[in-house]
Amino acid sequence: MRVGGIPLLTRTLLTAQRAGIEKFAIVATGAQQAALRIQLGREPLLRGRIRWFEPTQDPAPQLSYSLVLPPSVILDAGALRAWLVRVANGGGVTVPDGGWIGPLAVPSALLSPCIEAALDGQKGLMGFLEVLRRQHRLERVPWEGTRHEPVRSLGEVAAIEQAMLTALRSPEDGPIVDRFVNRTVSARLTRWLIRSHVIPNQITCASLITGLGGAWLLGGGGMLKSLWGLVLFQLSVILDHVDGEVARLKFLSSALGKWLDNVSDHAVDLAVIGFLTWRVAGNGAHFLAIGWAAALGITIAFVVVFRWSVSGQHLVVRTTVQARLVARALAVLANRDGFCLALWFAIVLDRPTWFLWALALGANAYWAAWLCIYGLPPGPMKAVGEAAPGD
Prior knowledge:
Four Helix Bundle (Hemerythrin (Met), subunit A); two-stranded antiparallel ribbon; two-stranded parallel ribbon; elongated; disordered C terminus
């Protein structure tokens, strides 16, 4: 069964790896192992990290506790990592609160009977845990964050994938265009693309080409061309969300992808400004200066914010009331809602100069306020293998 474009077992292992688990033992029959070795052999992140055991073999744990993961449960890596930190060595089996179907922290003395019970399915595992509860050897530790979700049938996959996409939404998303347009359409495209062999970087390239085509149409003048340019630009923004969603769902995030994604976004924005400046340049030389000021403003803002995003440092806001208010305003303006709404408004009213003026003033004010509040991150930039914020 595939969820989010990859088999459930592969997803379980990669999620646990993200949570800090380095070695795995898979208990399966010989026939199952033959198929699973082929499946997992395609995943480079798991090579050399898996030991295989027949159901009759003892895994002989090397640590006092093992994490037992049913492969039919969707987990969130961050929530799993936080839960493991709170698990105490009390001699019993630890389960999350609110239910028993999920990850289990099992001491070495109980690992073999736990596996034996789990091989009988959910009924056997539940019976094993009920016995431990009666013996007061079952402990519950609160689970915080995204809840783990069991997958019981193929009919549940669509709803689970939609819930996973909803959980991927960034707090930096805009409240209007991102929420009601971009994420709505990107979710449909993502659920289709995760079933294909298309990789996130290819989607990023498609976003770049679409955005450049839209910018070129916007620079040509004429309402019909302008409207098509707006549509292509908006599609480019939607694809910019899709590449991040596919990367996260299929564990394909990379440092190259982050750089490519951010640079392509900025290239599209610069192209829009450049072609609109070309469109209005005949109305006076001063519009060239406005266009240059707009391009310079978004470039400096891009460099400053992107440097923070790859620095690995946390933003620290000064304690003054004014600084906190400005920081909150910067967080609201960090998404592309303002850019999109201003562009649509100006083009539909056939006032492209309004858009250039807004960027020339707003973008330069943005990076200046950012530097006043946050400054530049200390130390050199680092390669971070995650998709860009807001994707």
